[in-house]
Amino acid sequence: MKQNLNLEEIKNLINTGEPVLLYFSGENCSVCKVLKPKIDTEVSKQLPKFNLVEIKTDEQLELSREFSIFSIPTTIIYFDKKEFKRYGRNMSVQLFIDEIKRPYELMLS
């Protein structure tokens, strides 16, 4: 996952039209630390064209405000420059992958 991108870099990444996953986490969030490697591994393996970005909310408060993040971890998926879905807090990684796999494959075909 890419880290420490500023707002302009993230918007440029979204505006490419490629699939983007934004993962909002925090330093003292145990769920964030457990979930991040699972998402990173599975998305990289099953959906390799995704651009993965981690945003640490405690270090980049302005990005939390810009993307209306109220709890962590939060994952936002972008397809074709548009927000597709948000996932918050506890989630099944396999259900998450299954849910975004079809639009991912349609977009890239």
How would you sum up this structure in a few lines?
The chain is an alpha/beta fold. The protein has helices spanning 7-14, 30-46, 61-66, 93-108, and strands at 2-3, 20-25, 51-56, 74-79, 82-88. Helix 2 runs parallel beside helix 4 (93-108).
Helix content: 40-55%
Q: Tally the structural domains.
A: 1
Alpha carbon gap, first and last residue: 24 Å
CATH classification, class level: Alpha Beta
Largest sheet: 5 strands, mixed
Biggest sheet: strand arrangement: 1-3-2-4-5
Task: Outline the low-pLDDT stretches.
Answer: none
Gyration radius, in Å: 13 Å
The helix/strand order is EHEHEHEEH
Give the oligomer, counting copies of the same chain as homo and different chains as hetero.
Answer: single chain
CATH homologous superfamily descriptor: Glutaredoxin
Question: Shape, please?
Answer: globular
Mean pLDDT: 95
CATH topology: Glutaredoxin
- Proportion of beta-strand residues: 15-25%
Proper CATH architecture: 3-Layer(aba) Sandwich
Count, helices:
4
Give an overview in words:
Strand 2 (about 20-25), helix 2 (about 30-45) and strand 3 form a beta-alpha-beta unit. Helix 2 packs parallel to helix 4 (about 95-109). The protein has 4 helices and 5 strands, in the order E-H-E-H-E-H-E-E-H. It has a 5-stranded mixed beta sheet with strand order 1-3-2-4-5, with helices on both faces. It has about 110 residues and is of the alpha/beta class. It has helices at about 5-15, 30-45, 60-65, 95-109; strands spanning about 1-5, 20-25, 50-55, 75-80, 80-90. The chain has one domain: Glutaredoxin. The mean pLDDT is about 95.
